[in-house]
Amino acid sequence: MSAITPNPQRVVVLGGGILGVSTAVHLLREGVTVTLVSESELASGATGRSLSWLNSAGARTDPYHRLRTLGIDRYRTLFAQNPDQDWLRFDGGLFWDSPGQATATEERHQHEKSHGYDSLLLKPEQIAEVTPNIEATAVEDVAVFNPGEGWVSLPHLVDHLMEEFDARGGELLTGAGRSSLEVVDGRATGVRTADGTLHTADAVVVACGAATPSVVAEHGVKIDNGSPVSMLVVTEPVEHGVQAVLNTPRAALRPNPGNTLAADHDWYEASIVEHEDGSFTIPDEVVQELLDEASALVAGTPHLTANNWKIGYKPIPGDGEPVFGELERIPGCFVAFTHSGATLGLIGGELLAGEVATGEKHPLLETFRPERFER
């Protein structure tokens, strides 16, 4: 392992989502002094509107699959320590494709089995044997059930981690506005908030979700950004009995604390309007259409109504792979940018904090370095 920025005493973490909070807490565990800076309130960005399905299903590169399975492992450890809370569950994930795509679903199952991922191929009438309260008639061909998968409510997780952050003496600054990376003589030296205040540091972690590429682009660093606009809808409380995370052709659905459900998908993206002030709107009838699609997945098709919905950019690097590590162009600046912010939330923060605190690159992050976009 090669040396990078050595042993910083003070680090500023820019971004109040799960990756920023997790990295900050892991840095505090390493004995580093940490200031966490958030544009608005904690979990107000993508972390607050994530389906947060904990998985490594489907096809992806071997290093990415390995990292995701380790991410799930860290959540299992947390779950073992807190088995009675209602914001982290491991009740499996259920996937099915569009009608006529049985072959593709079977290939997905075979791929998962080929590298030891727990995967069951089910006919509609078999679904009730492994997970309750799914409307079996919604599945026309076959489905894949992954027993080891789960979900997390990231705002609840952020609250949980911030208890430790406070206990370990971390400094929190919320409502900082659009902040920027400060670079002097080619090296990261801190973060400047919207009001002009400079927070100096030996190292900076940029974990701003979909805004991460633009923060470093101001200093000539290229990270391709493929982030789309997306929405998460949380329902009013309803008796539903659903336990698994559902990923289906017209709706993705999971349980949520308070006997509610959380739903998203991507077919409605063209209906979302982004305004000049950066806000988003979507017609109420489109939101209800998504919930009607979700209702059709639940046994008894309960009527689902929206309590709230949140819209914004979903962080996705241009090549789909995570981005972790120190910038070669700007020593002292580390980035965390990934689609799988939920699954990688704990492991990503742990490994990146280790790199920041010890000055040693971790081999598990080797293929995810930001410089690949420059090359």
UniProtKB/TrEMBL annotation:
Keywords: Oxidoreductase. This is D-amino-acid oxidase. It comes from the Bacteria. One of its GO terms (cellular component) is cytoplasm. GO terms for molecular function: oxidoreductase activity. Residues 10-353 form the FAD dependent oxidoreductase domain. It comes from Kocuria turfanensis. InterPro entries: FAD-dep_OxRdtase (IPR006076), FAD/NAD-bd_sf (IPR036188). The keyword Zinc does not apply. Gene3D superfamilies: D-Amino Acid Oxidase, subunit A, domain 2, FAD/NAD(P)-binding domain. The keyword Oxidoreductase applies.
